[in-house]
């Protein structure tokens, strides 16, 4: 089904409605109440930014996206000027409708853009490697219309709809011939660089394998060749056996602080039945996700009694390789180590990539388990 198709029925009673924005971008409404999405974008048409370029850091063979047009993007506007709130009589925003459940739209200032037909990633040739355009796709996922809320404030129904949007976008983006990796994620808090204080996340679809994916894939291949088993499955088995780092669990999901956590608070949430990506989750597993997702994010907020800044990242298998080796999991990391204190990535971490942890993962897991959840968890 094409991007401009008006309606698509998804799982869990979610209906997606596509609309075209004033500048030609696509906005997708994910609804559960049979809403009609007919309101047009009344803003003046603007030219979309041009596509940037990819440059190879030949010292480590890693691609860097050069996107100078992003310097002018919106930065921490007040609530009355938030572009992710619904449109009202005073402000025309990215969302033309007066309210919404979940929406996904093409980023206005993307780091990656769809390329011309025939695009391909060049062969690595050190400093002589050519500079291709920064092919890919960047999308914004708005979790709710309420400006002052967060993911942890959502209802289970809202989280289920967000999950369906992630699954839908993973499915469609994976069909693009230039996409190699689909990465849904959320930055929460100014401490991790958030530029819009509205409950939202993003999706980056890369035309290359990011460095962390390449490292995970290499480790998984080595483990498979040596043992005949899947690396992530063995890691999950260790967490279940050790038990001490488990933070939350239900019939279909397990949340734990990893054995070699790199951040003061780091939680991995994985389905008990391993899958390659979000599209492979069964309906039963999807329906069980909101409960554990809300418990985990609310435990994070409860550790110090203040909203916890974090990065929540969906790790999925690449689109075209390693799908039998890499497993879907949701990694949430926070740089906050105490009220008013952050873990800064200094010399060892930033320059050398060698992390040093000042607290044991078992300690942070214990702090997360000790959080007393209030009535907000009983939905």
TrEMBL record:
Keyword Disulfide bond: no
Entry cofactors: Zn(2+)
Principal EC category: transferase
Membrane spanning residue stretches: none
Protein name: UDP-glucose--hexose-1-phosphate uridylyltransferase
InterPro entries per the UniProt record, alphabetical: GalP_UDPtransf1, GalP_UDPtransf1_His-AS, GalP_Utransf_C, GalP_Utransf_N, HIT-like_sf
Span of domain Galactose-1-phosphate uridyl transferase C-terminal: 221-370
One Pfam family named in its UniProt record: GalP_UDP_tr_C
Metal-binding recorded as keyword: yes
GO terms under cellular component: cytoplasm
Catalyzed reactions: alpha-D-galactose 1-phosphate + UDP-alpha-D-glucose = alpha-D-glucose 1-phosphate + UDP-alpha-D-galactose
Keywords assigned by UniProt, alphabetized: Carbohydrate metabolism, Galactose metabolism, Metal-binding, Nucleotidyltransferase, Transferase, Zinc
Family the UniProt entry places it in: Belongs to the galactose-1-phosphate uridylyltransferase type 1 family.
Gene Ontology BP annotations: galactose catabolic process via UDP-galactose, Leloir pathway
Pathway info: Carbohydrate metabolism; galactose metabolism
Ranges of residues in domain Galactose-1-phosphate uridyl transferase N-terminal: 52-210
EC id: 2.7.7.12
């Amino acid at each position: 089904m094409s991007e401009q198709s008006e309606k698509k029925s998804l799982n869990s009673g979610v209906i997606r409605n596509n609309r075209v924005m004033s500048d030609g971008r696509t906005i997708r409404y994910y609804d559960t109440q049979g809403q009609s999405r007919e309101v047009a974008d009344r803003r003046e048409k603007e030219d979309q930014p041009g596509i940037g370029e990819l440059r190879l850091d030949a010292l480590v063979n890693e691609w860097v996206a050069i996107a100078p047009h992003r310097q002018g993007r919106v930065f921490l506007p007040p609530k009355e000027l938030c572009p992710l709130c619904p449109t009202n009589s005073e402000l025309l925003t990215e969302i033309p409708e007066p309210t919404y459940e979940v929406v996904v739209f093409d980023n206005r200032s993307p780091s990656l853009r769809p390329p011309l037909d025939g695009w391909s990633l060049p062969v690595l040739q050190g400093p002589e490697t050519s500079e291709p355009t920064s092919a890919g796709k960047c999308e914004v996922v708005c979790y709710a219309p309420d400006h002052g809320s967060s993911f942890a404030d959502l209802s289970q129904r809202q989280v289920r709809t967000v999950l369906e949007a992630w699954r839908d976008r993973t499915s469609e983006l994976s069909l693009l011939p230039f996409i190699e990796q689909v990465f849904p994620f959320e930055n929460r808090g100014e401490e991790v660089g958030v530029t819009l204080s509205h409950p939202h996340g993003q999706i980056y679809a890369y035309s290359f394998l990011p460095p962390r994916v390449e490292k995970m894939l290499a480790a998984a291949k080595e483990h498979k060749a040596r043992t005949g088993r899947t690396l992530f499955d063995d890691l999950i088995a260790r967490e279940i056996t050790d038990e001490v780092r488990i933070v939350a669990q239900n019939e279909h999901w397990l949340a734990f602080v990893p054995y070699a956590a790199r951040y003061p608070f780091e939680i991995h949430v994985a389905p008990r039945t391993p899958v390659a990506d979000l599209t492979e989750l069964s309906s039963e597993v999807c329906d069980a996700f909101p409960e554990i997702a809300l418990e985990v994010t609310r435990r994070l907020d409860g550790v110090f009694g203040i909203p916890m800044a974090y990065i929540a990242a969906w790790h999925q298998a690449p689109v075209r390789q390693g799908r039998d080796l890499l497993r879907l999991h949701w990694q949430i990391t926070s740089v906050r180590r105490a009220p008013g204190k952050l873990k800064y990535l200094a010399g060892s971490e930033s320059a050398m990539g060698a992390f040093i942890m000042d607290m044991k993962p078992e300690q942070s897991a214990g702090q997360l388990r000790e959080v007393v959840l209030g009535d907000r968890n009983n939905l």
